[in-house]
């Protein structure tokens, strides 16, 4: 029976400590979890464009290959954190050296990842051993292009601050060449011209969520961003969808719903939950404002023949037509419809209904906040806000159970 343990949650969250471009002058700290969030937003966009016209079963398979491949690459990256990219690429070019490195990486990951189940673990092992040995699949090409774009986006932040660095020109050329090699993918040409194109403007706007810090008035270690938080929630949502037995389409929708759930905060800042819950009517007011501004500033960007499918998918993931991203959702007769948990687990747990969890997404959002507060406390930075958050989340989730085998309170007890 697949299960989720404390070690896996802490492993995924550890990317918020992992600094990027550490040998360059930077305008701000750039961390791995933020980059992964941006990468997967780009991968979602490229994947949706590639899925247009595919039979539904192939489209679902492509989406899950992208999601799993992105998670697998991230887990691998977390273990080899101290190896600089140029050195890693040289290792990867030597099958024997790469095979030995991969065997060691998988041994480090095994105790924390294998509890998710044999299928996920076997897929992870196969994915890692396959890298560099075979021609890129469509999903792998999409992930590579997304990685290059997200990394180049960060590079353009630091390039003006490092005019004396003789590596700058070579780094820029490598990013450009890598993207040009993948111009056969729908959308990559638009990324090369970002932010001058609709797709380029959209992914650039999403990338700015790394600038926005969560808990902005509360000292914490680490100071996670909205972008990194969204990626964390996406990973948790995917892991929980595995352990509750969700179908493939539901697993993918849960990942992407987590990845985009705080996109409205591009427009309203990260308004803390106690404020939303304590001031009568303010939550509805904020939601109405967010919806209006999303249409004006985000969906207007995507209102082109090429990117309109992205807008439709994003509306579904955000639950805009039913009023909340935390509604359990399916597609019936081409329209979104709210259902209850039992229906989602039973009748509608099939790819053809495009099911998406809402209640479970809310739990993952709160678990991510718990991880942020708990980690800060373990590093010696604690205050009333963090203590109250930990107490509030434990109180809310202590008795929550998704199935008889998946009890959130038992998972939280691992942190006692």
In short:
With 416 residues, the protein is mainly alpha-helical. The protein is built from 20 helices and 2 strands.
Using brief descriptors, characterize the structure shown:
single chain, 20 helices, 416 residues, 2 strands, two-stranded antiparallel sheet, mainly alpha, Hypothetical protein af1432
Give the CA-based shape.
globular
Helix/strand order: HHHHHHHHHHHHHHHHEEHHHH
- Report the sheet-strand fraction: under 5%
Spatial strand sequence of the major β-sheet: 1-2
Spatial gap, N to C terminus: 24 Å
Q: What is the annotated CATH architecture? A: Orthogonal Bundle
Based on CA atoms alone, the radius of gyration comes out at 21 Å
Number of E-type strands: 2
Q: Calculate the mean pLDDT score and round it.
A: 93
Helix content, binned percent: 55-70%
The overall number of domains is 1
Q: Which structural category do the helix and sheet elements fall into?
A: mainly alpha
CATH superfamily: Hypothetical protein af1432
Q: Explain this structure to me?
A:
The protein is mostly helical. The protein has a single domain, classed as Hypothetical protein af1432. It is about 60% helix and about 0% strand. The chain is built from 20 helices and 2 strands. Strands 1-2 form a two-stranded antiparallel ribbon. A hairpin with a 2-residue loop joins strand 1 (about 330) and strand 2 (about 335-340). The longest helix is centred in the first third of the chain and has 24 residues, at about 55-80. The radius of gyration is 21 Å and the shape is globular. The mean pLDDT is about 95.
């Amino acid at each position: 029976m697949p299960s989720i343990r404390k070690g896996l949650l802490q492993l995924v969250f550890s990317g918020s400590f992992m600094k990027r471009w550490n040998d360059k002058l930077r305008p701000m700290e750039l961390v791995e979890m933020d980059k992964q969030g941006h990468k997967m937003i780009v991968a979602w966009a490229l994947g949706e464009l590639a899925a247009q016209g595919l039979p539904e079963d192939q489209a679902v398979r492509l989406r899950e290959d992208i999601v799993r491949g992105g998670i697998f690459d991230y887990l691998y990256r977390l273990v080899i954190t101290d190896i600089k990219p140029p050195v890693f690429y040289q290792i990867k070019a030597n099958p024997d050296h790469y095979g030995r490195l991969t065997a060691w990486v998988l041994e480090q990951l095994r105790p924390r990842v294998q509890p998710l189940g044999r299928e996920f673990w076997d897929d992870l092992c196969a994915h890692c051993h396959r890298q560099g040995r075979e021609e890129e699949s469509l999903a792998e090409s999409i992930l590579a292009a997304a990685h290059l774009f997200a990394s180049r986006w960060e590079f353009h932040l630091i390039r003006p601050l490092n005019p004396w660095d003789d590596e700058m020109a070579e780094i820029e050329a490598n990013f450009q060449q890598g993207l040009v090699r993948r111009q056969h993918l729908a959308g990559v040409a638009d990324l090369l011209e970002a932010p001058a194109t609709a797709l380029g403007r959209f992914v650039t706007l999403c990338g700015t969520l790394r600038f926005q810090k969560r808990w902005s008035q509360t000292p914490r270690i680490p100071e996670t961003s909205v972008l990194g938080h969204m990626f964390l929630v996406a990973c948790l949502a995917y892991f929980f969808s595995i352990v509750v037995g969700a179908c493939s389409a539901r697993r993918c929708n849960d990942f992407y719903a987590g990845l985009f759930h705080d996109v409205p905060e591009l427009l309203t800042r990260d308004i803390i939950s106690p404020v939303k819950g304590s001031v009568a009517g303010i939550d509805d007011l904020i939601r109405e404002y967010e919806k209006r501004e999303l249409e004006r500033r985000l969906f207007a960007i995507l209102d082109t023949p090429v990117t309109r499918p992205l807008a439709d998918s994003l509306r579904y993931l955000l639950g805009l037509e039913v009023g909340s991203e935390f509604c359990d959702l399916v597609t019936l007769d081409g329209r979104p419809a709210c259902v209850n948990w039992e229906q989602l687990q039973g009748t509608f747990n099939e790819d053809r209904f495009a099911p998406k969890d809402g209640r479970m997404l809310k739990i993952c959002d709160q678990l991510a906040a718990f991880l942020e507060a708990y980690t800060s406390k373990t590093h010696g930075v604690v205050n009333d806000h963090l203590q109250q958050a930990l107490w509030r989340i434990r109180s809310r989730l202590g008795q929550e159970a998704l199935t008889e085998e998946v009890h959130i309170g038992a998972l939280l007890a691992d942190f006692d």
